Structures are given as structure tokens and as C-alpha cells.
Amino acid sequence: MAQVFDRSSNALARASLVLTGLIVIALGVALNSLQRSPWVTKQGQRPDQPVPFSHKHHVEGLGLQCQYCHVSVEKSSYAGIPPTKTCMNCHSQIWTDAQLLEPVRHSWATGESINWIRVHDLPDYVYFNHEIHVNKGIGCASCHGRVDEMPLMYQQNTLQMEWCLNCHRNPGVNLRPASEIYNMAWAGPSSDKPVWCTTTGKGGPTAQGVSCVTKDPNNSNPEVAQVEAPKVGASGQSQVVSDAPAMTAMSPAVSYQRFTSQADLGHFLMDKYHIRTANELSSCEVCHR
Amino acid sequence: MKELVGTTHMGTEPTMAEGKQAQVITTIAPAKMTLAEVRAKLEGKTGKRFWKNLDELSDSPQFQELMQEEFPRQAGAGEWVDSVSRRGFLKVMGASFALAGLAGCTKQPDEPIFPYVKQPEDLILGKPMYFATAHPFPTGAVPVLVKSDAFRPIKIEGNPEHPMSKGKSDAYTQATLLDLYDPDRSVQPKFRGEPAQWGQFQQEFAKAVAGTKTGEGVYFLSETITSPTLAAQWKQVAAKYPQAKLVQYDAVNGDHARAASKAAYGDYLDVQYKLEEADVILALDADFLGGIAFPGFLPISAAYAERHRFEAGKTMNRLYVVETMPTVTGYKADHRLALKPSEIEAFSAALAGGGSTLSNPDAQKFLTAVLDDLKKSGGKAVVVVGPQSPASAHAAAHALNASLGAVGKTVVYTESIAPIPSEQGADLKSLVADMYNGKVQWLVLLGVNPLYNAPSDLEFTTAFNKVPVTVHLGSHVDETGFYSTWHINKSHYLESWSDARAYDGTISIVQPMIDPLYGGKSAHDVLQALLDPSVSAYDAVVANAKTYITGDFPTGWKKALHDGWVAGTAFSPKLAGVPKTAPITTSAPTAGAIEISFRPDPSIYDGRYGNNGWLQELPKQVTNIAWDNAALMSMDLMAKLGIEENEAIELNLNGRKVITPVLMTPGHPDDAVTVHLGFGRRVEAGRVGAGVGFDAYSLRTSDAPLSAAGLTVARGKGTYDLCVTKVHNIEHRGSYAQRDLEHPLSDKEGTYSLAGHEAMERSIIRYATVAEATANPKYASEGASGTWVNKVGYNPQGEAPEHGDSFFPDSWRYDHTAVVGAGQKVLQNSWGMSVDLNSCIGCNACIVSCYAENNIPVVGREQVKIGRNMQWLRIDTYFEGDLHAPKAHFQPMMCQHCENAGCEQVCPVGATVHTPEGLNTMVYNRCVGTRYCSNNCMYKVRRFNFLLYSDFDTESLKFMRNPDVSVRSRGVMEKCSYCIQRIEAVKIEADKNNRAIADGEIVTACQQACPTDAIIFGNINDPNSRIAKKKAEEREYQVLADLNFRPRTTYTAGVINPNPELA
Known about the structure:
The structure holds 2 protein chains of 2 kinds. Chain A is mostly helical. Chain A has 2 domains: 55-174, no CATH class; 187-275, no CATH class. Chain A has 11 helices and 4 strands. Chain A has helices at 8-36, 38-41, 55-61, 66-69, 84-91, 102-110, 130-135, 140-144, 161-168, 262-272, 278-281, and strands spanning 116-117, 195-199, 210-213, 257-259. A 3-stranded antiparallel beta sheet of chain A has the order 3-2-4, covered by helices on one side. Chain A is extended, with a radius of gyration of 26 Å. The relative contact order of chain A is 0.12. Among the domains of chain B are: 139-180, no CATH class; 190-253 and 421-563, 3-Layer(aba) Sandwich (Rossmann fold); 269-415, 3-Layer(aba) Sandwich (Dimethylsulfoxide Reductase, domain 2), CATH 3.40.228; 594-724, Barwin-like endoglucanases (Beta Barrel), CATH 2.40.40.20. In chain B, the strands form 12 sheets. Chain B has a 7-stranded mixed beta sheet, with helices on both faces. A 6-stranded mixed beta sheet of chain B has the order 22-24-23-26-21-25. The radius of gyration of chain B is 29 Å and the shape is globular. At the A-B interface, helix 1, helix 2, strand 1, helix 7 and helix 10 of A face strand 2, strand 28 and helix 31 of B.
């Protein structure tokens, strides 16, 4: 009987072995990149919302403060989605017959909720808490990106566990003075734009213990590092709730420390804000229970 | 109409093994054993022996076999209890599984957000709010704080500011949360079974009653009224319609107490016990540690536990208990005497008669010693009686408390907390007579279920059929609601306005937490329909509150709502005077006659909680039965009748019959049988309660509501596998026993059997008498010498290795200072718990609290039977000594959070890991369900979701979940987390304010519920914390310390205070 397989089959067999290996590797790589791809993470996607709400217009254009809508961000795990009432505060006066706002008016008239689609959606077994992040010097933009430049809201980061852990293992890189929490444009100190910080010696909420400015406080007329309403105070609590006395801590007697790099500032704030150790922050029960 | 004779569900157990399929073990019920065998086993054994159930005691080969399986319930075909074989299932489901694996990696579906249209002003979404209200209960309201998440009640806790309860609560109160969300609740009014409108009823009712002019023929049958407002409304109705009648009836009531107080003092009085003042306590069939079925359970048990602590400079109290059915009170007692009901009457008579003779020498000796002790105490003594005590005991207590000088000190008489006190049994009887005579035109049933629980001799159903119009106000379309002309769906107390008096008389306003889920109405609304229907329940409560809130009303009202109680409404003691003592009449016990005793069920009371899965699944006090009731009797009676455990028998009481399974109860008196009421609910009870157990009401008559003589027992009704949880948690431990066998140690007299081994040689339970503990304060720890009570150290490695003995001495240190930022050092938190075994009374409140806090699923009877109940916390009861009069020791057992945890070392996926603060934490989303951790856990505290137990579908139950705790799915291991969600919440709050967590700021759910403060939780790194101080005490010990798992939960060894005369 003639040989069934030609000699060339040997080469084919060898090649198929190699090929199988390659396919397995390729499959692994493909699954890995799939899992991290925006298709899975929804990073950068803009879901169809009932109203094409523009954060850019409201924040950058009109200068609305984050907390005007997200009222409980400093007080609760949940930042809060504004009730229809919040929209109607203005839109009962302006753009009252805009077609785009029909769902808002409908909601107001009927008492039915506006049916938003969640953009930043963590798995149900993750217990994220806004208040502790905001109170400990993690700015909105650190996770949510430049919301003030987003005409339509999308998810800036992957929100995957590795992304969370990047910061939980080394929070210093993202810490900022609590007074800068709502500053979308905060870029950290540099040698061009140093930041001066000092301790106020005050107890109470985290942010009141530290005061930071972006102009040399040794010159006269220091300017507080705040994006809006800078005259109110060095309190990192929002202007809405702050009752901190205005700038009493700014007397020349106070010694300010000058920071020119995020690393130094992060280190300083880690200490002053009593940020827990990386070991504690990356422990499972912090987010899963 | 349905036949109302007791129905049972014997012989309907599905047989699991079919054909060639592997035998599936569906039960780990104890193996059978005769009394002679037990006796033989016990023969010649001395020393302390602890045991949990009969088989362990007897150390039978079957039991050994059972123990070889770590999860006996997985023997055979594994987790499948139905007849579908595993292979068959895999064949069918293979494809789905393959897809399911992939599905795990796909993206999440879009999730909607529904914001408020107008957000309530005070609401901070994500932060719970707490509102004060009160749980009305016939024996007195329990003031509570309700945790509300976005206005959904999600947890009920005691009100810490209340002067009576001081923040404690009980199992029933905790479980009422599930009642609110019960999917079987009635959702709308019904007229002849058809949906109807409330307004329609309101009009017809008002019109019909107005037509009678005087209210003749209008009868109300209500549960015991404790609401002053409802009483006031009734007075208005009675004024408008003088012929209308109100009868109050609860199947479990305080008739005997009321009658006795009237006989002694000429008025219905309530008794308040001040156990904080009592050195000697005698309880006559009074289960005052069992739960709120006993009036004043919360303050009484707290005071008992406080005086039961063994502390320098304090005299420990001594508790004597005389009772029929063993209760947790009896088991906590320093001396317990088991007597059958008629003997208790004789005992009471002898007690009141100054110690006249009893035929029973044991009882006589007990009586003499108790009387001596009571008299010696100089007025610091008390005789406690309760709703379940016979009339003679009440009479004896009144007389004795007066003659001991206890009145005014340990006993205080006050007016009745029920604003309209009555003798309910007699009233019901006359109501039924009127029903037979056709006098009753309208019968309005307010929250009662007489078709189920009325005394069987009254033939209530027949009488009910003679009434033209019956109205049923009830939370469920229950047995009575189903047959009533009108059914009105009743609002839950968390949905309605009312008020109620607590045990001490303090009035609490009952305020709604949530709009009625199904538009339910309360008794206030029904009565108001006859007055002015435009007045709401709220208006009625406000109007009546003006009579007891003093000062500026709006301020006082706000304060009452905020605080949860109205100051100054507590009763002041009444000067009762000298009790009239009539000679106590007792029915002479017939020798050898079997008596039956009826008791409310420790878990579901009179049946009202029958549809509450948490309470049904709760292992009952003493018997550890879940989802069943049984004829409870002693070993001797079983031998006499020739019956075995789990045999079905027929109880026959004067021609009324019921078929029941049998369970041996250690410490039950001979010639008596105890049955628990509240079971055998019919199909109307709901999906949980229907058909569970047998109906003991069918034996109970109006003239003998507590006990009756003349019971006969017939054998041969088949078998019935009771669902008992006792043996579930016993670990495979042959190897340990083997080691001891090979190295016989000092105590040659002890037993080497596996059964006796655990609690004694391994010192799981440690205790001493006061004298021993005083002589050797270190009795509970290693290294002590002299009068060792429990032979601690019997094991060569009796305790955890010392620091120097360990290979890794610093591996489990948690007193590290955490360096934060630039060199600042903070002592790390390190959580620990301590349970005081002296204070634990085994009341089960902690378990139900844990259910609510941690979203624990209910698994059902079949699953419990094979050991898959999901409670994170159980109360182990260890018996010791004589089968007839055992001592018992309660030990709450939950995850011990071992520093050197065995579970963590074997988890292949890192799903159970250690946190820097020393918690042994479960990461559910990592768990793949290998169950290795459970195998390696020596405390058997891990619970596995063998099937999809959590209800993800029922809408109403979704409202109830604690949003801070994951709802676990199938295939996930779970266990006690020390309430990690509470720890994290407090940590975040403290971190926000840059401060350390204060001691006592974190309260775990079990600790919160515990009426006796037996559980302490806190930071053991803070030397000033309560927990650190407790851990430093000499009586503190670790369970199974020698295995070097280093548990974070420790136990405080018990101290008992026996009377030397009875020793």
C-alpha cells in the first residue's frame, strides 16, 4: 500500500505544532486585550442619554460648581444624581421650550424620573465611597477626567481593579490639597508653578488641617488655591458648607513649605491627611464585603 | 369549610434515592439508641462530661461514621437532594456551563439611574437614617430604632436611649422586619374573596352599625390592646354604641397572672421584677430569659446578667428554676428542678405553705433549700412567675414575695400596661356563646386568627359560621381571613401610626417608616370608621397624645417622636397592700398519668410568626429544632412508652388527637409531654408557614390552656425525620481523640470516648463555682494549678504556644504602628471580640439580628436537615452530666477570625484573606466554591451556598436588603465578617475627621441585639478599650487554643453559684 502521507506532511505536522502554540498565545493575548478594551470597560463611550446633557457647557461655560448637582459627594458614598428639581431651578426660567429638554419637563410634570444611563458603573460587589476620597485629597478629575471639557459624559478611565489599585498602592501621586478637589485643571506643583502649604493646627475634618496656596504667601496679598470664590477660605470643605474663618491662618507667622513636585506634595499630604498605608488601602475589605 | 382537626404531614417526606442512583443522604438525624444503651455507656463514668446530643453521649458507631464525613450532608451524590442525578444534570447543563464561563468575562449591561424628581430635603442618599418607633407586642412594646435606607426600613435595633430597654432587642422584634416585606402579605381588602375597596367597607360598616342605634350585635375580637389611643378610641365607640362589645383574645395570654393579681389585690395589676436587687431568684415555670413572651424580658434579663457577672466586690445572684419544659432559664439556673405541671402546683402550694411536705423527696429537698435561701437573703429575693405559670404559682408568688419583704424592692406592682385588662379566656367563651345564640351580627376581628388558635372545645368555626358578617383585619389572608366576609389588609407597625406601652409603662409613639406598601389599614382606622372617618390614625394618635404629653404639645410631640418615648409616662409603683391569701387549690397528680403542657414556641410564639422564614429556620432554644415542632419528653417516658426518637406517635387528649414526632429533651420531667403551639398552620399561612409541624391548638381546651392531664399516647404512626441542627457542626475529630488514646494522660477516671472528649478535655467549655473561682482565679487558663475544675491542660498543648515557642513569633502580631506619611506613627486597629459565657442566655436575638444585617438567606427545611442552614452565628448548647437533670452551657459560635487561620492557608484563589487589622475576610467575588476553607475550619462556622439560596427575584425582599452587604449567589462560601460594613462605615467617618475610632463606636449586629451585653467588640490594640481590658482578664480563654489558630474571638469562662446544700 502506498504511503498515505507524503514526506511534506512532516513539515506540515511540525508547522501545525508551532501554529497551535501560536494560536494559544494569540488567544491569550486577544482575551487579555479584549478584557481591557473599551468594549468591555466602556471607557470613552457615550451612552444615549434621554437628555444630551453637557458638562462642558454647565461647568466650563456657566461655572456651575460640581456640588450644585452632586450634592452628597462630601457626605456620602454616593455623589448623587440631581433630581429633576435641580434642572428646573434654571430651566423653568431659561430654555423653557427647548426640544432637548422635553424629557426634563415631562419628568417635572408627571413626577416620573428621568431615565439616565449610568456612565461610571462599578460591579455590585465593589463598595466605592465618594466621601472619603474627596475628603482625603482625591480630586474629581483624578478619576472622572476633565469633565468640564466633556460635551457628553463618558468614562475617562477603565475603572478596573488594577486601575484602582494603582492609586491605592501609591496614593501620593494623586493627592492634592483638599481645597483643589473641584479644580478640574489642577496639574500638581511644578518648578514653574510651585505650591505653598502649611498646617493650620486645626482639628476637625481633614482638609481644615492644611492650607495651601498657589502664590508665594510671603508676598503680600496671597491668593488661595481655589478655582472659584477664592475669597472664602482655606477650608477644603466646599464653599457651600464651609464655616471656616476667612484666612486667619494666613498671618505671616505661619511658615509655608514650598513644593515643586507632586512627589513631595503627595508625601506631605499623605502625612497631614493621615492617609492609611498602602498595605491597608489595598486590603480586600476596603472595597469588597 | 375545611376540617379543622389537626393536620400533620407525616410520611410525606420524599424518598430521595431512586433506582440505581447513588444513595443520597438527606438527613443526619441522630442514630437510634435505647435507654439501656445510654445507661450502659454512662455506667461507671465520672467527672464532668459534656455532650450536645444523645448520640454524642452514647458515642455510637453510627455517630462515629457520621463524623467521618466532614460534611455528612455531602455524602453520596453530593449536593443534589432532588432526584436528578449529578451526571444527568451535567449532561443537560454542560453547554450552559460552557457559556456561563465565557459570560463571566463579558461586559456589564447598562444600568439605569432613576433620580428623584424632588429629593426630600434631609435625605443624603447612601447614608442611612434612624427613626424611633416601637414594636407593639402583647406583653409590652419593644422600643426600637429603625435603620432606614432611602426610607426603606432595613434593620431594626433597640433604642439605646429608652429607659427600659437601653438599646437591647430580641429575636421577634428583629424578625418583624421580614414580616414587613413578606411577599405573602395581603395586598388589598376583600369582600367574599373578591377584591374590594376600603372605602366601600368603611361606608357599609358605619351604615350597618349606625342602623343598630345602640351597637347591639356588633362585637370586636381584638388581640391584646396595648395602645392607649386604641383604648381611647374604643371608649368613644362604646360611648356612641353602648351595646357594642369588645373582647380581647390572644392564644398565649396572661390570664393566670391577671386573675391571680385580682384575687390577691382586688385589681388587675402588673408585676415588675427588679432583679438588680435580687440575690436569690426562684422562677416558677417562668421563662424570663427566653424572650419577650415573658413581660419585661429586656430589663429583667439585663438585670439578671448584670448580677450574674463574677466581679470583685459584687455578690453573684443565685437562680433556682422549677419548670416542666426545659427552657434557657432553666439551663442558666444554678439549680433546676424538673416537675410535671401538677407537681409544680403542689410545689407552689407547699412553698406558700411554708415548706409543707411533698411526696417527691428531691422536690422536698429542693424546696427546703430554696425557702432557706430566700429567707436568708433579707428581702433581696424574689419569686418570679410569668404568663405560663399556673394560677397556684402566681398565688404562691404573691404570698411569698410579700412575706419575704420583696415587695417594693425586687417586686413592684403597677397598673396593667394593657389599658383594658381582661380575662381573655373567659371573655372568648362568652363571645362564642353569643355567637351560637345568634346575638352576633357583626364580628370584627382585629389582628386575631381564632379559626386557627381558638381553644378546640369552643368549636369556634361552627360559631363563626353563624355570624352573618365577619370582618377580618389581618396582615395575611390567613385561616380566619380566608373565611371572613370582609378581609381588610392590615398595615405593619412599621407602616402605621399608633402608640404602645412598654413593660415599665413608658409610652412610645409608633410612627410609620414607610408608606403602607399595600395601602393597609390599622385597628385605629377600623374603629374610626364608626366615629369620624375623616380622622386618620395619625390624628387619633395626636389627639390622644395630648392627654399624656405634658408641656408645650408641638415640642413634646416632636421630642416623643425623636426620642421614641414620652418622658414621665412610666408607671409609678402601686402600694398593693397585703395580698389576700386564699388556700391554694391544686389538682392532685395521679401517679403515672401523663400530663401535657402547652407552651408558645420559642421561635414563632403563638404562630403569628409562622410565615417568617428567619424565625422558622432559627434553631429553637433548648431543642435546636428548626422548621418543626415535636412532642418533647424525657428518655424515661420514651422507654416507658417504648418509643424512639423521630417516631411518629398519636397524642390523644380526651378524644382530641394529633400525630406528632417525638424528640428526647434532656431535663424534661417524666410522665409529661410538652408541645409547642403555633405550628400546623394551614395553607393560608403563606409559603413559609403552611404545613410546618403539627397543630397543638387542636388539643388545647379553654379550661386547660397551660397544661392538662389524661394524655394517652399511641404508637405506630410511622416515622418522621425531625429537622434538628444540633449535630451539624461537629467536626471530624477522630484524629485528636486518637492522640489522646495513645497518650493516656493524667485523668484516668475521665472518659476517653470521642463524645466526652471535646468539651471537657479540650476545654471548649470552662467554668467553675464561685468558691473555686475565688480560690483559683486562673482556673480558666493554662498554668494554673490546684483546684482545676475542668482539667485544663490535660492536653499536652492545652493552650496556644507561647511567644518563644513559636517558629514565627511575630507573624501574628497586630500591634504594629502604621507609619503614615512622614514618620507619624499610629497604632493600628486590631479588632477582637469577647463573649461572656456567664451572660449569654441563649435567647437567639443575635442570630436574627445577624440575618437582617448580613442579608442571610433562608434555605428551607430540606436544606437545613442536611446541614446547609446559613446562619453565620449559632449558639452551641453543651449538656453536662445526668440525663434527667443536665447542666447546660451556651456558647455562641461564629467565625473566630483566627490570626493564623486554617481557611486562609488552603484557599486556592485567595478568596479568604487576612486584613491588616486582623480580620479574616471573605472576598465573595473571588470565591470559586472549593469548600477547602470549610474543611479546614475547626469551628465549623463557614456556610456554603450549595444552591441559589438568596432570593433575587421577589420584589418586596429586595427592599429589605442591607445595601452595604453583597447578596451572595450560588457556589460562594460565607461567614461572619465581624460586620465589616459597620467597621468600614465608622472608619470612614473617623478618617474624615482625622481622629481615632472611639471605643464602642463600632457595634456589631449581634452585640447590638444582645439583651445581656454578653458580646463585646473593639480594638484590642487600645489598652483602654473595653475589649482590651476584657481580654486581659484571667477568665478569658480561646476555644481549641492548642491548635494555634489564634482566634480573635475569645470567651469568658463561666462561674456558677450553686447552693452548697443542694450540691
